[in-house]
Specification:
- It holds the Pfam family DMP19.
- The chain is α+β, with helices and mostly antiparallel strands.
- The chain has two domains: 201 residues, A middle domain of Talin 1 (Up-down Bundle); 69 residues.
- The chain is 48% helix and 15% strand.
- The strands form three sheets. It has a five-stranded antiparallel β-sheet with strand order 3-6-7-8-9, with helices on both faces.
- Helix 3 packs antiparallel against helix 6, helix 3 runs antiparallel to helix 7 and helix 5 runs antiparallel to helix 6.
- It is globular.
């Protein structure tokens, strides 16, 4: 499967409202990201100039809505099998932890590529394949809820910036006008709210685990595609540890920063490398 790297230029991080991130309703965070992407598109910002994570989340949400409404055939028809859309979905599903959905989407990709024409109803075998994949999608959705996974991905991502709802559109306008992004503590997050986990990253600083990921990629000759959210449920040698998942041109990996040492795991959670991180730049 082709996986494109969408390089954020104008907005290289996720922006959602602080209230949606704190809400118990996961749909609100997804909707807030959708509002941001839609607004930027209305202002003639290309998807390629937005955060790859925000765009991926946006199209996963659209994918869910279209499949629930009209099945896989409906999604293929409405998306017109746009390379940008399908690449964003194919890249994002494994990043948010929707492994079953990712496998189904991979088979959808194969069905479309093998079909005489992807137009719904044009070929009985293709139509039957779409219907079977729709049933598999619905079964997967009962186990891997894309709304919940999508929201968790957005709110926990290290490059997510939380903004007051009332300030959201003015904040985007300031970016479009070329104004300097607001620094943490200048009123973008509500009083008493914890600092955004992506605030430092949004301003250009590299977090400790991001520096470790850079080292691993350099050491193994890999190209970093995207960094996903942290997994606080991970355990290393019997002790709890946060694993940060990331996607490269060589596949899906995760890293655990132990403070002075970082451990790299492959997609099967098998330890494959260890590096000394004691010399990395400290992060405030």
């Amino acid at each position: 499967m082709l996986i494109d790297r969408l390089c954020g230029q104008m907005l290289d991080h996720v922006v959602i409202s602080a209230a949606s991130a704190r809400s118990a309703d996961p749909a609100l965070a997804v909707a807030s990201n959708r509002e941001v992407v839609d607004y930027l598109r209305e202002r003639q910002v290309a998807y390629e100039e937005m955060s790859a994570q925000a765009v991926g989340s946006y199209f996963v949400d659209r994918y869910l809505s279209l499949v629930l409404e009209g099945g896989m055939a409906g999604f293929v028809s409405h998306s017109q099998w746009s390379p940008l859309i399908v690449s964003a979905i194919g890249r994002t599903l494994p990043l948010i932890g929707a492994i079953g959905h990712a496998e189904i989407f991979e088979r959808l990709w194969e069905a479309v590529e093998e079909a005489p024409t992807p137009a719904p109803g044009a070929d009985p075998r293709t139509e039957a394949a779409f219907e079977a994949l729709t049933r598999e999608f619905l079964a997967a959705q009962a186990v891997e809820d894309l709304v919940e996974l999508n929201a968790a991905f957005l709110t926990a991502h290290p490059r997510t910036e939380l903004v007051d709802q009332d300030d959201l559109l003015p904040f985007l306008d300031s970016l479009l006008a070329g104004a300097t992004r607001a620094r943490p503590g200048q009123g973008r997050a509500p009083a008493g709210a914890p600092a955004s986990p992506g605030a430092a990253g949004a301003m250009g600083a590299r977090t400790h685990f991001e520096q470790a990921i850079d080292l691993f990629c350099e050491m193994r000759g890999m190209t970093l595609e995207a960094v996903s959210a942290g997994d606080p449920s991970f355990t290393y040698r019997g002790a709890p540890a946060t694993a940060w998942h990331f996607l490269t041109d060589a596949g899906h990996f995760s890293v655990v920063d132990l403070g002075g040492t970082a451990v790299l795991f492959d997609e099967k959670d098998i330890e494959v490398a260890t590096i000394d991180t004691s010399s990395l730049a400290p992060v405030a």
